[in-house]
Amino acid sequence: MKIQGKMFIWLSFFILAMAVLYGLWSKEPVGTTALFMAFGLAIMVGYYLAFTARRVDAMAQDDKEADVADEAGELGFFSPHSWQPLSLGIGGALAFLGVALDWWLMFFALPVILIGVWGWVFEYYRGENQNQ
Fold first, then answer.
1. Tally of CA atoms within 13 A in the half-sphere of 61 that contains its CB
2. What is the pTM of this model?
3. Of the candidates 9, 3, 7, 10, which has an alpha carbon nearest to the alpha carbon of residue 43?
4. Using CA atoms, how far apart are residues 37 and 57, in angstroms rounded to an integer?
5. What is each CA distance from 41 to 32, 45, 50, 55, in whole angstroms?
6. pLDDT in tens, 82-131
């Protein structure tokens, strides 16, 4: 995390220089304010990463001799046979179609989305895959 902290701090100095240059050159207050706020956000993230990097153990990204697989861990469980993303996709398509055409189509999209979310959350709570 040390390198990320340094990168964000250097990025914040670049944004600060660009904000000053943009403010003097364009005399436009909204963009100048946005750039100064971006500087503030970048310096906060950089400070946080540099601050926490001192308190955690060295990670693989801090070692110049590290391999890509040194930081790899378990990614989690991904359901190989779930039909729930299909129902969520159909419900999302209906919802976006409702925004484009007319709002009454949302009455058909919302139950399909809710059934898809309910099925996805409780997919492994019953049935043959209960203990996975």
1. 8
2. 0.51
3. 9
4. 32
5. 14, 6, 14, 22
6. 889 999 999 999 999 999 999 999 999 999 999 999 988 888 877 666 66
